[in-house]
Amino acid sequence: MQEHLDTVPGLELETSQEFQFERMASFEWLEEQARNRHYSTFALYEAAEFDWAMRQFKRNLRSHFMDIDHITWRDENTALVVRKSAG
Predict the structure, then answer these.
(1) What are the residue boundaries of the structural domains of the chain, listed by start?
(2) N or C: which end of the chain has fewer CB within 10 A?
């Protein structure tokens, strides 16, 4: 990230903080999100690739979670505070 900030004159990374939180959703909700291409990787697929990816996505969910009405995961994020100097 610092390399990208260095390409813009006057930008300086002030602080960063990593945080995470637990998430839970149903299989149906996750499938709908994927079908609407909410997840960035799904938005990149052509129609045939997307159909294959959706089948894999659903197969993976079913094989990794016993209760598909309560699929849990941990979102991990990084917050950056970037300041631009006046000059």
Answers:
(1) 1-21+77-87, 27-69
(2) C
Give residue for tokens 């052509």: 46
Residue 53, token pair as written in the block: 């990816």
Q: Which residues pair with 18 in a beta bridge?
A: 78
Q: What is the pTM of this model?
A: 0.67
What's at 56, amino acid-wise? Q
Task: Give the amino acid at 32.
Answer: E
Q: How far is residue 22 CA from its own chain's centroid?
A: 14
Cα 55 to chain centroid, rounded: 19
The residue count of the chain comes to: 87
CA 23/CA 57 separation, integer angstroms: 17
Average pLDDT over residues 63-69: 96
